[in-house]
């Protein structure tokens, strides 16, 4: 025979976390007053807040931006370290694959018309001479530590990608197909992050001027490295020049945008520059008759 048992008052039940009802918590959020288990607690200026209140506050918090309009973030330059990591991993793949990884991703104007992704992937390859990757990674680290926090991650990614592509476009614009014993070929073959690095060098000039700093040292560095490209054989100066012009153009767009239009320019400038690079590439391929030769 069953008998009814009195239901204990609600106030007698131990408080539980709304997100984890199986966990008892006597610590309450300072904003909403609800219990919060250790997993759901976030330190606040006074006491703790629950994750829901912290998330809601983040939505209404004013967007803190850099001088160029990018989202201001603290901590390490994540994008810069990621790019360095990708280059190092790719370099190890080059050594382990016996040249197959390099052959699959390097850029040459002739093959770029068939496999356009090589306009970008070549930037993550390097020559077997370790000094090549060491110099590029050092330059990427130095420039990235300055530009990534100033521009914001999204703008910095756009700058790196378009500078790398711009370097390959420079090779296309400043070279021509040649007749060989086995047919028509269009080189040279290009590997290296130099186009990207020169793009970062180029972007630093207008950015430094926008911040009121002296860009003379960067200009000297650009001049020295440009001269090396013409003196030392085997260096694709065309990629250096293409990356430099691309980076300077995008850096100027970011740095000269009016404060109330920085967000618009942050999206519009990379898209417009990408269109220009595509149009110039297609024009050169068409002017040389390469498209008809490849797809005809």
Automatic annotation (TrEMBL):
Q: Which GO terms describe its cellular component?
A: membrane
- Belongs to which family? Belongs to the peptidase S54 family.
Name where it's found.
Membrane
Molecular function terms, GO-annotated: serine-type endopeptidase activity
Q: Indicate whether Ligase appears among the record's keywords.
A: no
Membrane-topology annotation of the record: Multi-pass membrane protein
Short name of any one Pfam family annotated for the protein: Rhomboid
Q: Where is the Peptidase S54 rhomboid domain?
A: 115-256
Superkingdom of source: Bacteria
Q: Which residue windows are transmembrane per the record?
A: 78-97, 117-142, 154-174, 186-208, 215-233, 239-257, 264-283
The Gene Ontology biological process annotation of the record reads: proteolysis
Where would you say this protein principally sits, based on its record? membrane
Query: What is the protein named?
Result: Rhomboid family intramembrane serine protease
Q: Which Gene3D superfamilies match?
A: Rhomboid-like (1.20.1540.10)
């Amino acid at each position: 025979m069953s008998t009814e048992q009195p239901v204990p008052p609600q106030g007698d039940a131990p408080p539980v976390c709304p997100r984890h009802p199986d966990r008892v918590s006597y610590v309450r959020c300072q904003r909403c007053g609800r219990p919060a288990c250790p997993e759901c607690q976030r330190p606040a200026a006074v006491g703790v807040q629950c994750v829901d209140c912290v998330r809601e506050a983040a939505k209404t918090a004013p967007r803190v931006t850099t001088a160029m309009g990018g989202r201001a973030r603290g901590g390490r330059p994540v994008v810069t370290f990621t790019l360095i990591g990708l280059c190092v991993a790719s370099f190890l793949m080059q050594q382990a694959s016996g040249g197959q990884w390099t052959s699959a991703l390097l850029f040459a104007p002739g093959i770029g018309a068939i496999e356009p992704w090589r306009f970008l992937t070549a930037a993550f390859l390097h020559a077997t001479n370790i000094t090549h990757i060491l110099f590029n990674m050092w330059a990427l680290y130095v420039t990235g530590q300055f530009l990534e926090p100033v521009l914001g991650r999204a703008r910095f990614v756009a700058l790196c990608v378009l500078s790398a592509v711009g370097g390959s476009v420079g090779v296309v614009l400043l070279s021509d197909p040649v007749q060989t014993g086995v047919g028509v070929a269009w080189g040279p073959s290009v590997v290296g992050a130099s186009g990207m690095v020169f793009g970062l060098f180029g972007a630093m000039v207008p950015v430094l001027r926008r911040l009121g700093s002296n860009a003379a040292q960067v200009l000297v560095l650009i001049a020295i490295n440009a001269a090396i490209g013409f003196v030392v054989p085997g260096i694709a100066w065309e990629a250096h020049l293409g990356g430099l012009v691309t980076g300077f153009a995008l850096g100027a767009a970011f740095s000269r945008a009016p404060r109330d239009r920085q967000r618009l320019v942050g999206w519009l400038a990379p898209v417009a520059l990408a269109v220009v690079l595509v149009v110039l590439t297609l024009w050169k391929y068409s002017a040389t008759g390469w498209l008809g030769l490849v797809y005809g």
